Amino acid sequence: MILADAKSKMQSSVDSTQRAFNTIRTGRANASLLDKVLVDYYGSPTPLKSLANISTPDASTILIQPYERNTLNIVEKAISLSDVGLTPSNDGSVIRLNIPPLTSDRRKEFVKMASKYAEEGRVAIRNIRRDAIDAIRKQEKASEISKDESKDQQDSLQKLTNEYTAKIDSLLAEKEKDISTV
Q1: Is the model's pTM score more than 0.85?
Q2: What is the pLDDT of residue 182?
Q3: Which parts of the chain register pLDDT below 70?
Q4: How far apart are CA 121 and CA 75, in angstroms?
Q5: What is the CATH number of the domain that holds 39?
Q6: Between 20 and 30 A from 96 (CA), which of 18, 55, 71, 129?
Q7: Strand order across the beta sheet in which 61-66 lies
Q8: What is the domain count for the chain?
Q9: From CA 12, how far away is CA 6, in angstroms rounded?
Q10: What's residue 123's pLDDT?
Q11: Beta bridge partners of 47
Q12: 3-state secondary structure of 45
């Protein structure tokens, strides 16, 4: 039971790390750059992707077409105020975001950011392992499981931890390759 719970939590950490990686800009246009953008729609923060169609017509442009034409200005304002770092241009019916090519310094910055996100994911996985080991030791102390069972579960938990840490490392390597590719 403890191992299954730890496994699902570790998978959630890997998924969360993947979503964080998706918000890092590479040299190409990607609609997931706008995943964190919230628009103040009738007084409530609403994700941009539920208010507009987001597409990438070419490698250096993101095209945003709001479902309601009257939301064009608030969508543009939300993008400007977000931490995306891109300036929207509004032509009256759609918003365009031009993705400038990355400089080598900017690429290094993004690689550092990706490494930071990966480390946060690894720390989350290690915290899950620590909590699970504490729960196993409590069961052993309460004589619910034997010392051998406790040792076996802890070994399985360590293997699980290594497996999910390796997943994060491979995601990081993939993202670094994406960022570094010109």
Answers
A1: no
A2: 63
A3: 182
A4: 31
A5: 3.30.1360.40
A6: 18
A7: 52-58, 61-66, 95-98, 88-90
A8: 2
A9: 10
A10: 96
A11: 38
A12: strand
